[in-house]
Write a structure and sequence with these properties.
Blueprint: H1 3-10, H2 14-23, E1 29-30, E2 36-37, H3 40-54, H4 82-149, H5 166-171
Antiparallel strand pairs: 1-2
């Protein structure tokens, strides 16, 4: 029986049954989900505990049963066979291999993209340096032409004007 069924028989709540089992450290079997399973002798033991408590004995004063604790039985669900486990391991390995392959291909693609971008930038730099050289040669050619076109001015060819004195510049004479 489960905890709720035993609680109904004894007329107490399921949490009371659980508290008795825990506080008195009673040897109860559990199912695969960890729920208590009660047998006829367990129910009889709980009835004795209930009677003692109704007679005024404190739960701390109750003596737990002196019999050895039953080994706890639990069920562990295992795969139906080892083939299922082996299939899962093989599938995980296959997925890891696919993941590594995909990562390698993505990295290779990115490297190729970067390489083509670098080559494009290098060609642009070459074109720009050729243009700069052409502009520098045109500039130097223009400077040479300007120097040839300038007339030579001699110092004695300049006309010296007479300076007006301050008073005549004021009256306009």
């Amino acid at each position: 029986m489960n905890t709720a069924q035993v609680a109904k028989i004894l007329g107490v709540s399921p949490s009371t049954i659980q508290r008795w089992v825990k506080q008195l450290d009673l040897p109860m079997e559990r199912n695969e989900r960890g729920h208590y399973l009660f047998h006829d002798e367990d129910i009889q033991l709980l009835k004795n505990i209930q009677e003692q408590l109704q007679n005024g004995v404190l739960i701390q004063e109750l003596q737990p049963p002196t019999e050895k604790k039953k080994p706890r039985k639990g069920m562990i669900k295992s795969p139906d066979n080892d083939q299922t486990l082996e299939k899962l391991i093989a599938k995980v390995k296959e997925l890891e291999l696919n993941l590594n392959t995909k990562a390698d291909s993505v990295t290779s693609y990115q490297l190729l993209q970067h390489r083509s971008e670098i080559e494009e930038l290098q060609s642009q730099v070459k074109e720009l340096s050729i243009q700069v050289e052409n502009l520098q040669s045109e500039l130097s050619d223009l400077k040479k032409k300007q120097q040839l076109d300038k007339p030579l001015v001699k110092d004695h060819g300049l006309i010296k004007r007479k300076k007006k004195n301050f008073v005549s510049s004021l009256f306009g004479f």
